[in-house]
Amino acid sequence: MGSTDNVHAFKSKITVYVVACWILAAFGGLMFGYDIGISGGVTAMDDFLVKFFPAVHERKLHAKEDNYCKYDDQYLQLFTSSLYLAALVASFGASKACTLFGRKPTIIVASVFFLAGAGFSAGAESKWMLILGRILFGIGAVPVFLSEIAPVQHRGAVNILFQLFVTIGILIASLVNYATSMLHPYGWRLSLALAGVPAIVLFFGSLIITETPTSLVERGNDKEGKAALQKIRGVDDVDAEYEQIKMACEQAKQVKHPFKKLMKRSSIPPLIIGILLQVFQQFTGINAIMFYAPVLFQTVGFKNNASLLSAVITGVVNVGSTFVSIYAVDKVGRRKLLLQACIQMFIAQSAIGGILHVHLKSTGSLDKGLAAIVVGAGLCVCYVLCMVMGTSWLVDTQ
């Protein structure tokens, strides 16, 4: 976030074009969120399991099968996790591509990979096609460049826009899964194919949005960089901000060994804090909920359609919490939001864990009352609500 002086120094207007750029760039978050939410619902569909994982489907039908072993299949797990593994590897290449070719061309290529992933996944006839589709989804994870086109005074809210679109993508995926689960036997194909819709929007939208001024300047296109800055600010007087961008790019070029500088004693504390914030945000288990919500809800006693509907409710809470976070982050403060979220998540997880440990045996399920408490009060209200409210702002640190 910029200082108060910078906020007043840099002139800008929020134009229709600028807002369109923000939304189109944030569609990368919608793509990623859709991919997170779609896999859990698809793996809970009987038609999908019969096609690719018949052994898992057989175990699912056996009432006396251990609840913790029904979905124990390495390829089924790879179907979900290959997205993250591919995104991890591709992120290094994406960083280099952004530097060499610019943010806009990288986004165009990423959306093409994502479209290819949707095609392979929806048309899969074997497990390798499923896995390849998920890998292409991961490679197509779009780099975030919202912070480079957002005015300083709106940068925090615009950065959270990406997180908001992630949650919207998860909600849309839950709604799609609920609808397609009733379309036999190809509902799962439609769920996976619809991932291509936001990719198409992003592809054509990326032809409209401008390259970021920072990217243009760092590649030596100073005139184009200033013109792009004027376009996204909606004013002609951008000299002060333009000079700061040029200065920052020059300073970045002078850094010859960035990783060596990170190991300096003065850099280690903020480096460790920044990394651990991101790591422990993931270790709270939120991705397990978003990936496997329908499967978890089936385990505690919900039927197939009811479990998918419960995932929809979780998605609604997720989106609503992000709106609350956008409103509260600058009024309450990031630190207070994070601390209260940690306390409430600990209480919620402890309560849910205690209920499941005592009442959910290796076979059978919870009674309807306890299942409603776990899903409604525990997961939706206490856990998801507090998690999203307390940590959505962490996108600022990425």
Automatic annotation (TrEMBL):
Gene3D superfamilies: MFS general substrate transporter like domains (1.20.1250.20). Pfam families: Sugar_tr (PF00083). It comes from the Eukaryota. One of its GO terms (molecular function) is monosaccharide transmembrane transporter activity. PROSITE patterns: MFS, SUGAR_TRANSPORT_1. It is found in: Membrane. CDD domains: MFS_STP (cd17361). Keywords: Membrane, Sugar transport, Symport, Transmembrane, Transmembrane helix, Transport. Residues 21-398 form the Major facilitator superfamily (MFS) profile domain. InterPro entries: MFS_dom (IPR020846), MFS_STP/MST-like_plant (IPR044778), MFS_sugar_transport-like (IPR005828), MFS_trans_sf (IPR036259), STP/PLT_plant (IPR045262), Sugar/inositol_transpt (IPR003663), Sugar_transporter_CS (IPR005829). Signal peptide: none annotated. It is a multi-pass membrane protein. The chain crosses the membrane at residues 14-34, 75-94, 106-122, 128-146, 158-180, 186-209, 271-295, 307-330, 337-358, 370-395. One of its GO terms (cellular component) is membrane. Its main location: membrane. NCBIfam families: SP (TIGR00879). Belongs to the major facilitator superfamily. Sugar transporter (TC 2.A.1.1) family. This is Major facilitator superfamily (MFS) profile domain-containing protein. It comes from Nyssa sinensis.
